[in-house]
Sequence to fold (283 residues):
Amino acid sequence: MTLVGQQPGHQGVGQQDPALERCTAGPLVVLTGAGLSTDSGIPDYRGPGAPARMPMTYQEFVSGPAAQQRYWARSHLGWSRMGRAEPNAGHRAVAALGAALVITQNVDGLHEAAGTPRTVALHGRIADVICLACRRTTPRAALQQRLEDANPGWAAAHADVAVRPDGDVDLEDTAGFVVPPCLDCGGALKPDVVFFGENVPKPRVERCYAAVEALAGTDGCLLVAGSSLTVMSGLRFVRRAARQGTPVVIVNRGTTRGDDLASYKVEAGTSEWLTALAAVRAS
Fold:
């Protein structure tokens, strides 16, 4: 692995950056993580300085109304902030790369908002809600209004709580919060995202594997941006690329679980580096 570092305060990406040169020509598959959205005001899970935390698991969520009340009370507050986030320069750069596929582990929908073509939201989108009983999906915005109507004053009373990366907040006391049921069948509602302990739908995984496998024998590469690759849902694509001999470039502040598989590791934030790459690929 070749390590490419940048000094704090660096104002430009060097044109002799070997990782940048490696991604300049040929097809790209891009895998993004929470680090790409930090410049949009959404904190990440495992970046430098990020507090240790354990998101609610799928098994806990489906255990009953108490867990669902706790989740929705927090998510109701977090959504009002995440929903206002806008794509940053990194998202816009990814949209301009002309990648064969963009695989994102993020649920914030900012790649889609930036107009990124050929995107797979591996873990779903927080802007959608699904009923666990009848499986109908509905917009989160509609549920947000129902939550506001059922819990007047809740947001104002907890306006100072800290936001977490997956759209909820750091709040312990959720007693009394009212969670509306599905309007169609009365079932329990869940954000249409993949929780820890839940499997990514197989068709999504297969589409991502196919895109990575299509890089074999080309001059392309797999570009990882803003992900620590701690969970297997993203790391498996890095492993597949490395196994077939496809170069892997990782742009991330801090170590990642895929560093030993990378051809190049860039210790930098994503926005500036991706913007430089988009400019070079467009020239």
In short: The first helix runs from residue 18 to 22. The beta strands are 2-5, 28-32, 101-104, 119-121, 124-131, 137-139, 189-193, 221-225, 248-251, 264-267.
